[in-house]
Amino acid sequence: MARDPHPAPAAPEDGMLEWMKAARIIAKIPYPPVSAWEFGQLKTERAVRDRLKGATVYIIAQRPILWFDQVRVEDGQIRLDINDGQGPPVKAIVDPYDLGIFATDEPMMVECGFHHDATDQPPPWDRAASLKLYDRDKTLRVWWSPQKLLFEAFALDRRIPLAGDPERFMDFEIHYIGKAYDQRLWKRLEEHRRLLDILTYERVRGVDHTQPSLEITIFALEVLELEELHGVRDGPEDGLADPPGMTIFRHPDDPADPRWSAFRRRWAQAHEPAVTTELEAALIDLFKPAHNKIKVKVYPKIAGGLHALGYSDTLLRLKNCPYIFRTEAGGTPLEGADPEDGW
Fold it and tell me: Are residue 135 and residue 246 in the same domain, yes or no?
C-alpha cells in the first residue's frame, strides 16, 4: 500500500463512504545476527535464548566471514581492524570504560577466540573470531563478534568509532525465510532441513576458509506492534486500478451504524499466528529466496494471513535494521532504506 488511509471527507448524498483498513506490522531484530557456527555455540546460553524467545520469523542469509585483525589494548581502549579479505579493513576503537562495561578503576582482561589454532599467540592478534572481556574474578562481562560489534554501533548507536567503509559489511544474500510460531526459534533451527541443505550446498563466498557455517548467518525477527490504520479510500493513484482483491468497505461515517463499529474494532493482536504468517509471506514475496521451494503465489491473498481477517492492505516496518538484503539474482528491494525509521 503506497499510502495510509485518509480521514473521512464529506459524505456523498446517500451517506455511504468507501473505507479501507490496513495493518502495519512493526518488527525488530532482537539480537545481533549470528553465524550458524556461532548459533551452535550460543543456543544453550540462557541470556541469548531470553533475547530470542519472542522471535517468530527468521532469515537465513550469507556474506563473507568477518574477523578482527591487529587487536591490542592501549590505555584501556581496544583497537582493532574489522576485515573480510575483500577490501580495506575498517578500523575501530572500543572503550569498555566509556561504554559502562567496567568501572574506571576496574581491571579488565581481554581474550580472543579463533576459528583456527592460535594458542599462545601474542598481541596484536589477527584472524580473531571474537572478543571476550572478563573482570578480575574471570566473570565474562561481554563478548563481541565482528557482526555483533557492528550491530551495536549501527542499530543500538553505541559509542564505537569506526573509520573506513563499514556499510559494505552490512550486505547479505538471503537464502531462506521461515517462521517458528509454535516452537522456540532455536528448537526450530536445530531440526531445520533447509538450513542443513544450505550448509551443504552453498559455496563459500569469502577467502581463506572452507566452512560455510562461518558465513551462513541467522537473523531473528520479533513482532513488536500491530497498528491498525483506517480511513476513507481516496481512489486509485494516477488512474491505475486498485491491486487485485483489495477489500473495500462501504458504510456511513456514523458511530451509531453497526458497520462503523465493526470496522473500527480491533481485528488482530500483534502476537497472533496470523501476524507471523503475514510477516513471513510478505518477506518471501519481496525477496523470493532460492531455498524457499514453496513460493507465495498470490500475495497478499494467503491462507491464515491478515488479509484473511479482512484487512485491505498490509504495511511492514522493520526497526533497527542497518542491513542491505538481496538475493543471488541481485535484487535489493530494501537498499536505501533509513535504518533509524525502518523499512
Answer: no
Residue that is last in its domain, among 108, 125, 144: 144
DSSP labels, 123-174: SSB-SEEEEEEE-TT--EEEEE-HHHHHHHHHTS--S--EES-GGGGGEEEE
Q: What are phi and psi of 66, to 5 degrees?
A: -105, 155
Same domain for 113 and 179, yes or no, is no
Residue 301 contacts residue 307 (beta carbons within 8 Å)? yes
CB burial string 122-136: b at 16+ within 10 A, e below: eebbbbbbbbebbee
Question: Are 4 and 123 members of one domain?
Answer: no
Mean per-residue pLDDT over the chain, rounded: 82
Count the domains in the chain.
Answer: 2
Find the domain containing 86 and state its range. Answer: 67-144
Domain membership of residue 149 (yes or no) is no
**Is the separation of the CB atoms in 291 and 176 below 8 Å?**
yes
Distance of alpha carbon 189 from alpha carbon 186, whole angstroms: 5
Ramachandran angles phi, psi of 275, nearest 5° = -70, -45
- Lowest model confidence (mean pLDDT) among 180-184, 200-204, 223-227: 200-204
* 38 backbone dihedrals φ, ψ, rounded to 5°: -65, -40
Cα–Cα distances in angstroms (integers) from residue 125 to residues 92, 111, 148, 162, 234, in the given order: 14, 10, 18, 19, 61
pLDDT of 230-282, one tens digit each? 999 866 665 666 666 678 999 999 999 999 999 999 999 999 999 999 999 99
The three three-digit cell numbers of residue 57, written as one number: 520469523
C-alpha cell at 153: 554501533
How far apart are the C-alpha atoms of 42 and 202, rounded to whole Å? 23
